[in-house]
Specification:
Helix 2 packs antiparallel against helix 5. 20% of the residues lie in helices and 35% in strands. The protein is of the alpha+beta class. The two termini are 35 Å apart. The protein has a twelve-stranded antiparallel beta sheet, covered by helices on one side. The protein is globular, with a radius of gyration of 19 Å.
Length: 296
Amino acid sequence: MNPEPDALHLDRRAALAVLVAHLRLERLEHNLFRGGHVDIGSPSVFGGQVLGQALMAAARTVPEHSVHSLHGYFLRAGDKAVPIVYEVDRVRDGASFTMRRVVAVQHGQPIFHLSASFHRHEPGVTHQRAMPEAPPPEGLRDESEGRRALRQHLPAAALAVVDQARAVDIRPVDPQHLLHPTITPPYAQTWLRAPERLPDDPLIHQALLAYASDFSLLGVAMRPHGLNFMQPQVQGVSLDHALWFHRPFRFDDWLLYETDSPSAAGARGFCRGSVFTRDGALVASVAQEGLIRVKP
């Protein structure tokens, strides 16, 4: 039996509390942190979680400046059975800019590398592209509800993903059918937000956006080919992830995530994203390349 919307909301709120707790990390030493896992049903650790935790580890060593950009590379699949240790290298501490490098380690091997730059706030010129038109989130169906409605028709391997409560309310504007995706242009819009009020710490909101930005990005490169992650012949894996923060925002308010894929070639899809507040402020930009293999 599918849970009622209220029960789904309670499950998501509980999942959010667990995620925020894991993002805060355990400090082992001056530059050493440890993080647990939030299972989303994937066979390995979700890349967005590693991205968010690595950002938190870097920021915990920067007391005054705010993160403005990060670039990460996924090196190995994360093991959900053991914690991840994050080693922070204090590359540079400057008056205006500070740089950190983070290596995520499991079983003595790096699984992820992150470079993050932090900037002291200062005034300057400002402009941005206009926010695209999009229907409001209130009239859209939550992605989890759509997946659970098809639960009895999905392959067994997909049920672990469907049954996990997500910590983020995700409402696609033009959702693809999980079993029979149609061929559409490589473009998508999705509304995102945390299901309840978050602490006022801006870092928590940035880490949660980093986490959520990995959910629907690579899928936009599959749209022109009628593919998705639910199909057993499709293998999709994030290779790298870049994120730039432009303006302050709150992740417990609705954010529009506009994504597109200008190119796919050589079994790799390149995707971009722009994140807007509901009142039109461009708060972040995202880029990612991912592996897309279609087995015969």
